């Protein structure tokens, strides 16, 4: 092993340990900062040159994520999330109905509005509803976590790893959704079933709950109609963009520009809500993986040949379930890009999407949405621990992963 390879491997290992644990002894950095410093070290230490580092960044993914975050920020300021949460949950008359509403609304919202943003805005609302109804919020928050991940599987814009996969694979938005919709819907039904079975004391109670004291949102649909029209046109653009010859990132960033232009909110305030540190995190991951691949130190991994066959589907699923827990599903997906680009198989791309997304439900660190809910709930003095998480997580991930694996094998059979 050459000196350059040793340096590359050390940078990669230390950086990914920082990403996994979100901190290391005597280093005051979080996972996003670790990724940024690691990427810079890859360049400064000569593992890759600056020009190659820039070329390794998938700007299509970055632009798509930026566009979606701007649209979400305007919808947030318009009160869209509070409006749909109040409108839908106000019809839930008992704990079982409330769980079903939370699971399906979170799931479908996550499919089109990025799951991380959805759980960030929905968590305080769910806790407030549960407190007013004198219900333990933990099972409902677990339903939110699991459905945010499962529902986000539906579309390319549902979560960051799907964005990466959608851009890299060139699968159309409509085809991706047609393939993933059955798995997402079945997964949400599994989530409701498992949460109820593991919390019988709460859901065996058929008594009516009272959420009439929930504060009604000040906004209404008339005040947010412009932003909703733009958002609707963006979603339509995603479906028909390939026919029109317009890429998904261009549609997203055009929609973001129009919604900023028409919004009554100050653009400065809207842009302050955009998580630019997440964009830096993505840029850094692309550079890190490019650096470790360029060094050749992990060629034994990157030279694995994935073929469009049953064995490769099983290998990809096993890798996804394991490595999504170690790396979290977004870094894992970026790490897999060199292998997937060589395989050049739509079925394997779809398998990676379903496996990495559903694997995110297995542990607390499996997906960013999990950590966001736990952090936001903690601010409301509701503390979710591994003790609450482990049993439903194992059951849900096992069942939904088997369903997704079977679906991939069906696609393989009828390709």
Summarize the structure.
With 415 residues, the chain is mainly α.
What can you tell me about this protein's structure?
This protein is mainly alpha-helical and 415 residues long. The chain has 21 helices and no strands. It has helices spanning 3-21, 31-44, 50-56, 59-77, 80-89, 95-113, 115-132, 138-152, 160-169, 173-198, 200-203, 225-244, 248-262, 267-272, 276-295, 299-302, 310-327, 329-343, 346-359, 368-379, 386-413. The protein starts with a helix and ends with a helix. The model has no long low-confidence stretch (mean pLDDT 89).
List keywords for this structure.
mainly alpha, 415 residues, 75% helix, 21 helices
The count of β-strands is 0
How many helices?
A: 21
Radius of gyration: 21 Å
Helix content: over 70%
The ordered H/E elements are HHHHHHHHHHHHHHHHHHHHH
Envelope shape: globular
Structural class: mainly alpha
- Low-confidence residue ranges: none
Distance between the termini: 42 Å
Summed over residues and divided by their number, the pLDDT gives a mean of 89
Q: The biggest beta sheet, please?
A: none
Strand content: under 5%
Strands, helices and their partners?
Blueprint: H1 3-21, H2 31-44, H3 50-56, H4 59-77, H5 80-89, H6 95-113, H7 115-132, H8 138-152, H9 160-169, H10 173-198, H11 200-203, H12 225-244, H13 248-262, H14 267-272, H15 276-295, H16 299-302, H17 310-327, H18 329-343, H19 346-359, H20 368-379, H21 386-413
Helix pairs in contact: 1-2, 1-15, 2-15, 3-15, 4-9, 4-13, 4-15, 5-6, 5-7, 6-7, 6-8, 6-10, 7-8, 7-20, 8-10, 8-20, 8-21, 9-18, 9-19, 10-21, 12-13, 15-18, 17-18, 17-19, 17-21, 18-19, 19-21
């Amino acid at each position: 092993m050459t000196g350059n390879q040793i340096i590359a491997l050390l940078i990669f290992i230390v950086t990914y340990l920082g990403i996994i644990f979100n901190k290391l002894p005597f280093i005051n950095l979080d996972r996003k900062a670790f990724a940024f410093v690691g990427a810079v070290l890859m360049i400064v230490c000569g593992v890759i040159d600056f020009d190659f580092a820039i070329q390794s960044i998938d700007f299509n993914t970055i632009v798509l994520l930026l566009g979606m975050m701007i649209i979400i920020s305007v919808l947030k300021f318009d009160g869209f999330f509070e409006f749909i949460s109040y409108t839908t949950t106000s019809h839930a008359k008992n704990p079982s109905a409330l769980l079903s509403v939370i699971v399906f609304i979170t799931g479908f919202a996550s499919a089109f509005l990025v799951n991380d943003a959805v759980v960030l805005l929905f968590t305080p609302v769910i806790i407030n509803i549960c407190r007013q109804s004198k219900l333990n919020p933990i099972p409902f928050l677990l339903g939110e976590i699991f459905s945010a991940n499962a529902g986000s599987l539906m579309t390319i814009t549902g979560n960051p790893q799907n964005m990466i996969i959608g851009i890299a694979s060139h699968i159309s938005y409509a085809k991706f959704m047609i393939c993933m919709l059955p798995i997402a819907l079945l997964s949400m039904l599994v989530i409701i079933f498992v949460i109820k079975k593991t919390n019988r004391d709460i859901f065996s109670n058929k008594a009516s709950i009272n959420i009439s004291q929930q504060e009604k949102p000040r906004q209404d649909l008339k005040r947010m109609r412009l932003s909703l029209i733009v958002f609707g046109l963006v979603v339509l653009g995603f479906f028909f963009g390939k026919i029109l010859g317009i890429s998904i990132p261009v549609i997203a960033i055009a929609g973001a520009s129009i919604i900023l232009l028409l919004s009554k909110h100050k653009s400065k305030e809207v842009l302050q809500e955009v998580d630019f540190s997440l964009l830096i995190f993505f840029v850094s991951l692309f550079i890190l993986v490019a650096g470790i691949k360029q060094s050749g130190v992990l060629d034994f991994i990157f030279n694995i040949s994935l073929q469009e066959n049953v064995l490769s589907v099983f290998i990809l699923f096993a890798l996804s379930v394991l490595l999504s827990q170690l790396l979290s599903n977004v870094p894992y997906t970026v790490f897999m890009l060199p292998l997937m680009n060589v395989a050049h198989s739509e079925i394997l791309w779809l398998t990676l999407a379903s496996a990495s997304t559903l694997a995110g439900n297995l542990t607390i660190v499996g997906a960013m949405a999990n950590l966001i809910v736990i952090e936001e709930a903690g601010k409301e003095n509701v503390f979710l621990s591994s003790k609450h998480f482990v049993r439903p997580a194992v059951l849900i991930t096992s069942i939904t992963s088997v369903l997704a694996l079977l679906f991939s094998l069906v696609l393989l059979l009828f390709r």
